[in-house]
# Entry
Amino acid sequence: MYVWVGNEDQKVRYNLVDYDDDHKKEGGQGVVYFRHNEPCLKVVNDPEEHAVELGVIAKILAHPDQPYAQVKTAGAVPIDLVRDKDDRIVGYTMEQLVGWHGLHEIQTEQGSQDSGVVLAEAGLILAALSRAVRLIH
# Structure
């Protein structure tokens, strides 16, 4: 399956079949494809089901300085849209987060210890993320 990233003049084609199991992660919404020195591609399983979310992302990317810039310090944010052969939005790209931990890993005392994050710091991280999310909703 091929997908395209970029605008009319600078589209880049990716063949998702070329990504082996070590370079993709499947989740509830879809699959994240990643390689060294390339953007991550998040492709949703059912674009129709996620049409509202993908539409919001498209609107935010049209005006990236408001308010997305403030959220970039708290996590990975969409950078560009991923489209299928019919030019339908099926996902987005994001930067690779090397050495980061999922929020679920720091929400308990044991999880925060295993991740090397002090539980009090985890609370501050979650509070900052909550403020950032409020800015975009």
Notes: The longest strand covers residues 89-94.
